[in-house]
Amino acid sequence: MPNVTRADAVQAIRNPLAFIAARWTPTPRTVRRAALSAVVMTVVIVVTGGAVRLTGSGLGCPTWPKCTDGSLTTTSEMGFHGAIEFGNRMLTYVLCAAVGWAIIAARSEKPWRRSLTRLGWAQFWIVMGNAVLGGIVVLVGLNPYTVAAHFILTTALLTVAVVMWQRTREGDAAARPLVGAAIKQLVWVLVVASALLIAVGTVVTGAGPHAGDSSDVHRMPLDWETVAKGHAVLAWIVVTLTFALWFVLKAVDAPKGPLHRTRDLFLILLAQGVIGYVQYFTDLPEVLVGLHMLGSALVWIGVLRVALALRERPRPAAEIPAQSDPELSAV
User: Fold this and answer.
1) pTM for the full model?
2) What is the CA angle 105-48-296, rounded to 5?
3) Cα 84 from Cα 48, distance rounded (Å)
4) pLDDT mean for each 10 residues of the chain (331 residues)
5) Helix (H) / strand (E) containing 311
């Protein structure tokens, strides 16, 4: 057991991250896995949040931050819906732990990369803001506009988490483009169209039948089928843009990174499209809607990976491991 002096204890209290960093140096793989854990937990939160809505458990805990006025946790009287909603709230702490682990690993890496630490802290504050927004969602009785904002903020969290995960595999040098300006513009159109697709998806949910609770919950005053058809049109635009991007990258003999990421996105979009049409023509079964929400997160990850693959940030030779890392070659 190391000898901890009074000065060490004071330092640990004043700046615990610096204290840990002075005594621990994670491997690059550990930092990458810590960042990946935040990505995975964000996707899990998307799926479990969908489960809350699809089981009608949105008001299983009718108040916030307590589950009920007299209990911090769910009670037997709250039944199945209370357990589902409270379980989703508890997973927020797991998400916080994953983000905290990413922050600690990034802060302890040698040399210290301030950009990584900032991305970790950005995730932390988004999680805190979304927790408060989630409480507001409950307090206003699952108002569909607040529910949509809650999902969009989670998508913002996923964006930062994916960027941090990517940056753990890069250096801090200036980004070097791998494709021409015209292809980058096409990708930005794809990113904007995908973001609009996700935003319209929240409107489909807000106007659709899955209100999130078995009680009479206010819905967006829009024709659900019309919005759903608009969502489908946007989906086809995103698919077309992705195929066009793959074709252009293939034609100009682009590096394998952007080409493979575009192929992966195209396959995810096809699977998501099949689920979307099946759920539409089968009256929105809960299982398929849940899979569609998972697909939404995977589509956005795929879009971000395409955008991030258009450039490279070489690491200094001193930071490159002597042996090849299978994790690096796999992504």
Assistant:
1) 0.87
2) 85
3) 9
4) 59 74 90 96 92 78 83 80 86 95 94 92 96 89 87 95 95 88 95 95 77 60 83 94 95 92 95 88 82 92 96 70 44 41
5) strand 311-312
CA dihedral defined by 197, 198, 204, 205, rounded to 10 degrees? 170
Q: What amino acid occupies position 279?
A: Q
Helix runs in the chain, H state only: 6-14, 16-23, 28-54, 79-108, 114-139, 144-167, 181-207, 224-251, 256-281, 286-308, 326-329
Q: Give me 72's structure tokens.
A: 């911090």
pLDDT tens digits for 152-170?
Answer: 999 999 999 999 999 999 8
Rounded CA gap, 146 and 140, in Å? 8
Q: Which amino acid is at 185?
A: Q
Exposure on the CB side of residue 150, measured as CA atoms within 13 A: 23
What are 84-119's pLDDT values in tens digits? 888 888 999 999 999 999 999 999 999 989 999 999
- CB of 202 within 8 A of CB of 53? no
Would you list the DSSP string of 210-274? --SBSS-----SS-HHHHHHHHHHHHHHHHHHHHHHHHHHHHTT--HHHHHHHHHHHHHHHHHHH
For residue 47, give every residue at least 6 positions away whose Cβ sits within 8 Å of its Cβ, in sequence order, or none: 290, 293, 294, 297
Report d(CA 225, CA 232) in Å as an integer: 10
Structure-token pair, residue 304? 């971000």
* Six-digit token string for 318: 């001193």
Q: Which residues contact 94 (CB under 8 A, 6 or more apart)?
A: 41, 44
